[in-house]
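Input record (Table S2, row 198):
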Amino acid sequence: MSAQALTTARLRIRAMESGDRELFLELYGDAETMRFIGRPAPRRENNARFRAALDAARKPRGPRFFTILKKRGRVPIGLCSIRRISVRESSAEVGIMLIRVARGRGYALESRRAFVDAAFQTLPIDTIWVQNHRSNTDIARLNAKLGFAETVHWRPRGARRDWRVLILSRWNWSAPSRPMAEHLPVEWFGGNISRRTR
Ligand SMILES: CC(C)(COP(=O)(O)OP(=O)(O)OC[C@H]1O[C@@H](n2cnc3c(N)ncnc32)[C@H](O)[C@@H]1OP(=O)(O)O)[C@@H](O)C(=O)NCCC(=O)NCCS
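Output record (coenzyme A complex):
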């Protein structure tokens, strides 16, 4: 597993690894965290999901999970993900979830901003999209702060029926003045993708 990581002022984001099992089980087993995502599953089921998530990351087109840690103490606080990276559709979907005690401190904003910046700087895509339950106001606020906007004209493959889909296009993205992802190889996000030809 690659030791490469994305860093921000307070956070470190690296590929999810086998030692992150407890974090994964906590997130996917917690009813409040899963409120707008799906049914919280029992430990045994989530153990299998965790193994499947690690396996998927080894496949060229599988979803890829990343662990968000506080730099101080290397405390894991959540997961973010990228999936459905499509060079043909020039797009990818991102997701995020934080453990309850880590919310309301701007960590989600800080990590999602860095993740989106790195994806645009690294991947040959022009659109990043998110999908959320219409009642999930926390994620709606976060997405709005980053400039994601609702789309009615484009429905990406894999979007759930009745969920809100928002997109951020490369043209509406505020690129950081200092490139921070230059050191990340394209494989960090997923195999079998060639870097954007500049
Ligand atoms: C969605 C989710 C990731 C958002 O996390 P969050 O902690 O609420 O988001 P933020 O990082 O933006 O922080 C929110 C608040 O922290 C405050 N904050 C405190 N310190 C801050 C700082 N240093 N910098 C920035 N904001 C700070 C902000 O003012 C913000 O409040 P506001 O939204 O009223 O403006 C979280 O609610 C979650 O994990 N939910 C469960 C899983 C889920 O539903 N995921 C989405 C699936 S589609």
